Amino acid sequence: MIFEQLTEMKGFTHQEQAVARYILEHTEAILPMSAEELAKASYTSKATVIRLSKKLGLAGYQELKFQIVSESVQNIRINQLLQNEPINEKSTYQDVLNVIPALYDKAISDTRMCMDKNVVNRIFNRMMRADQIDFYGNGITYTLAQSAAFKFSTLGMECHARESVNAHYLTERQDQKRIAFVMSFTGANRSMIDVARYLKKTTKTFVTGIVGRHNADIREYCDEIVEIPSRDSLLSLKVMTSYTAVTYVLDVLFGMCLSQNYGNHVEAALKMVNQESLRTTVDYWNLIYNKEKKS
Predict the structure, then answer these.
(1) CA distance 138 to 267
(2) Which end of the chain is more exposed for a tag (fewer CB within 10 A), N or C?
(3) How far is CA 176 from CA 6, 45, 129, in A?
(4) Which parts of 44-139 fold into alpha helices (H)?
């Protein structure tokens, strides 16, 4: 970074240090200046200005000015982002307790506004007709895929979490009706784009993307897209809000699936409770009865 080098002044001569100090103290003022004008203002010479530019690894003074403009804009952007961060070095325990629910609420509200009812209903109808549901993720979105696969399997659906394509498996099961969810917080994850491309071009899988706004490439290979909002952030809070957004989309679909065959799910749950004592040696019905009797 040019500003870091100018601040450190490592290996600079006294004259070069004078130029560096002037640039740091009058950054905006030097932009219209020529090398001669900067030399005059810093009480040095044009040769010193050119020599300093090259010592910074640049071709000359014009490139130095270009880099200064570029880094200045970037620094302004960074400062704006940091000012908008809800957690900073002054945040207390109570501040964090208050901020986290607010972040969750905003992520869910923003996602809800982005969701298209018709798109969600079409995805749901495909899920109801599918023989198998695959959830694809990479890194943190793979943990979401695992969670979703477990959650939907409790409804008796055949589900799998995957990090990549299993071509042999897909070929062997090519006659199955399959829906795949491909997840990316940014929408630009290269491995997920490759997954969507393979599924779209070589299988009959109905591909659904739950992705961030940079989804121009992956959109080409998806039958449906649910776009999640993503906040600009320098910190990992962006991961938190994106995680919440994807979870919300999946939970909406889970709720719809649960409602579709509610009676059957209730019956299955009651059977599970009756059989629970065989797995855990705990009689839940007696526990509930005794608790109610005492109260």
Answers:
(1) 36
(2) C
(3) 63, 77, 10
(4) 46-55, 61-84, 93-114, 117-129
